[in-house]
Design a protein that fits this description.
The complex is a heterodimer of chains A (117) and B (113).
Chain A lengths: L4 E3 L2 E4 L5 E6 L6 E7 L6 E7 L2 E4 L8 E4 L6 E5 L8 E8 L11 E2 L3 E5 L1
Parallel strand pairs in A: 2-11
Antiparallel strand pairs in A: 1-3, 3-8, 4-5, 4-9, 5-6, 7-8, 9-10, 9-11
Chain B lengths: L3 E3 L4 E4 L4 E7 L7 E6 L6 E6 L4 E3 L2 E6 L4 E6 L8 E10 L5 E5 L3 E6 L1
Parallel strand pairs in B: 2-11
Antiparallel strand pairs in B: 1-3, 3-8, 4-5, 4-9, 6-7, 7-8, 9-10, 9-11
The chains are: A mainly beta (117), B mainly beta (113).
């Protein structure tokens, strides 16, 4: 399809397990964002890519979180040694503008619901 | 203080009612403002941008008050299908100079028959 695609849609992980979440942005979109949404809260910024460059990772909660976008298209968010507090929906969004240009509309994927047990 | 603050609600209104949501933001340098809609267990989707002069899209009217740093959304003639969470979104410049979207917690609207 033409939208942002995320996989898996649902992931149950045992505490301590590593997980990898995938995002396929809209083709041609320069900017890619990862957000974390806890139950009853708005999305919280995690990290941002412009093409393959990770320009801001200030929102990543700990060094257990790692994101990459090696070819400037698909991105992977990896969480090592998952903890219960990592349980949330992880949303990926893409948009056309690059750095220095005011963000207009961001298109979101349906998210990956991560549950750590 | 959160960068973007909203009343979480829920706002319970009957069909046909007019309802208004407000949102305040802390960064006076913000340039772009949006309302996103999020249905239960779905992703956020852009409802409308908010312009300084105010803008209207059908039953929805958005207004921006830069001096007071608040944004409003007015929904007239509420429909059952308007039931959702409405997210106030403001752009903010990060330390690296790029513009990121900062979301409020969202205001939940429930429209009943």
């Amino acid at each position: 399809g033409a939208g942002v695609s995320q996989s898996p849609r649902y992931k149950v992980a045992k505490r301590g397990q590593d997980v990898a979440l995938r995002c396929d942005p809209i083709s041609g979109h320069v900017s890619l964002f990862w957000y974390q949404q806890a139950l009853g809260q708005g999305p919280e910024f995690l990290t941002y890519f412009q093409n393959e460059a990770q320009l801001d990772k200030s929102g990543l909660p700990s060094d257990r979180f790692f994101a990459e976008r090696p070819e400037g298209s698909v991105s992977t968010l990896k969480i090592q040694r998952t903890q219960q507090e990592d349980s949330a929906v992880y949303l990926c969004a893409s948009s056309q503008p690059g750095q220095g240009v005011v963000v207009t509309e961001a298109f979101f994927g349906q998210g990956t619901r991560l549950t750590v047990v | 203080r959160k960068e973007v603050e909203q009343d979480p609600g829920p706002f319970n209104v009957p069909e046909g009612a007019t309802v208004a949501f407000n949102c305040t933001y802390s960064n006076s340098a913000s340039q772009s403002f949006f309302w996103y809609r999020q249905d239960c267990r779905k992703e956020p989707k852009l409802l409308m941008s908010v312009y300084s002069s105010g803008n209207e899209d059908g039953r929805f009217t958005a207004q921006l008050n830069r001096a007071s740093q608040y944004i409003s959304l007015l929904i007239r003639d509420s429909k059952l299908s308007d039931s959702a969470t409405y997210l106030c979104v403001v752009n903010a410049e990060s330390k690296t100079g790029f513009q990121k979207l900062v979301f409020g917690t969202g205001t939940r609207l429930l429209v009943s028959p």
